């Protein structure tokens, strides 16, 4: 039996990078996927691979900065599958280095809306069904950047720290309803977003010291499965070669 056989998982930011890696990992374990991101063509490419692995996929192009789009993700999932078993809040904007004194207020709000508020509102949208059924798994994707601040990274790191706190708060609220909420803090992962933000880190995973997206997907599969039944409110550091213990 596959670990996620027949379950329905929403993965945000699923068109590339960690989100695509998690979606494909879930599909290999038997889950049906609701894939959401802004670019429909990129979602379709991931969906093709999901289907080739024998799972079903629903693509919902959406902007997590839009409350209407967030409601639509939850509604289309319910219409297609009748429920949401797993939610992975992965979508995020990584802004270039900008000191706060130079930070455009509109960009600041955009990062907050997509990275943090969008995750909270999508969680809110799927919770009634999870609470009614008395089961569910919510996995938030934070970052090593959620553990401490850094020059020029204030907006991004504030949102990632916020996801850690959101995880702990929701875990306390939802455990009585049979819902587990956890968080993964990846270190450097070889994704297009990481390479755009940190050009010096460009290169294949095997030569740059960056992790492959599937390494994070394996952690997410465990957290989404029944094997993690004893775990909620946990913040799991998956730092790879960026682990401060190595310094």
Percent strand equals 5-15%
The class by helix and strand makeup works out as alpha/beta
Q: What name is given to the CATH topology?
A: Rossmann fold
Question: If strands are numbered along the chain, what order do they take across the biggest sheet?
Answer: 3-2-1-4-5-6-7
Taking Cα atoms only, what radius of gyration do you get, to the nearest Å?
Answer: 17 Å
Outline the secondary-structure elements.
Blueprint: E1 8-12, H1 17-28, E2 32-36, H2 40-52, E3 57-59, H3 67-81, E4 86-89, H4 105-133, E5 136-141, H5 154-174, E6 179-186, H6 192-197, H7 205-208, H8 213-224, E7 235-238
Helix pairs in contact: 1-2, 1-8, 3-4, 4-5
What would you say this structure looks like, in words?
The chain is of the alpha/beta class and 247 residues long. It has a single domain, classed as NAD(P)-binding Rossmann-like Domain (Rossmann fold). It is built from eight helices and seven strands, in the order βαβαβαβαβαβαααβ. The chain has a seven-stranded parallel beta sheet with strand order 3-2-1-4-5-6-7, sandwiched between helices. α2 links the parallel β2 and β3 (57-59).
Short description:
The chain is of the alpha/beta class. Helices cover 45% and strands 14% of the residues.
List keywords for this structure.
247 residues, alpha/beta, Rossmann fold, seven-stranded parallel sheet, 8 helices, globular
């Amino acid at each position: 039996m596959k670990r996620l056989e027949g379950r329905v998982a929403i993965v945000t930011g699923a068109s590339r990078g960690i989100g695509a890696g998690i979606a494909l990992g879930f599909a290999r374990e038997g889950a049906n996927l609701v894939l959401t991101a802004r670019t429909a063509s990129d979602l379709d490419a991931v969906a093709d691979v999901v289907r080739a692995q024998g799972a079903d996929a629903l693509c919902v192009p959406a902007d997590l900065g839009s409350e209407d789009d967030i409601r639509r993700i939850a509604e289309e999932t319910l219409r297609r599958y009748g429920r949401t078993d797993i939610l992975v809040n992965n979508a995020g904007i990584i802004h270039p280095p900008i000191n706060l004194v130079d930070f455009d207020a509109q960009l600041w709000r955009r990062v907050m809306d997509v990275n943090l508020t969008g995750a909270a509102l999508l969680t809110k949208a799927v919770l009634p069904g999870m609470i009614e059924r008395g089961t569910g798994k919510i996995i938030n994707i934070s970052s090593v950047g959620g553990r401490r601040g850094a020059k020029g990274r204030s907006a991004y790191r504030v949102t990632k720290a916020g996801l850690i706190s959101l995880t702990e708060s929701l875990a306390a609220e939802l455990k009585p309803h049979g819902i587990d909420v956890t968080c993964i803090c990846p270190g450097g992962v070889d994704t297009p977003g990481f390479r755009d933000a940190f050009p010096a880190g460009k290169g294949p995973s095997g030569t740059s010291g960056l992790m492959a997206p599937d390494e994070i997907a394996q952690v997410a599969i465990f957290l989404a499965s029944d094997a993690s039944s004893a775990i909620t409110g946990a913040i799991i550091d998956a730092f790879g070669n960026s682990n401060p213990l190595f310094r």
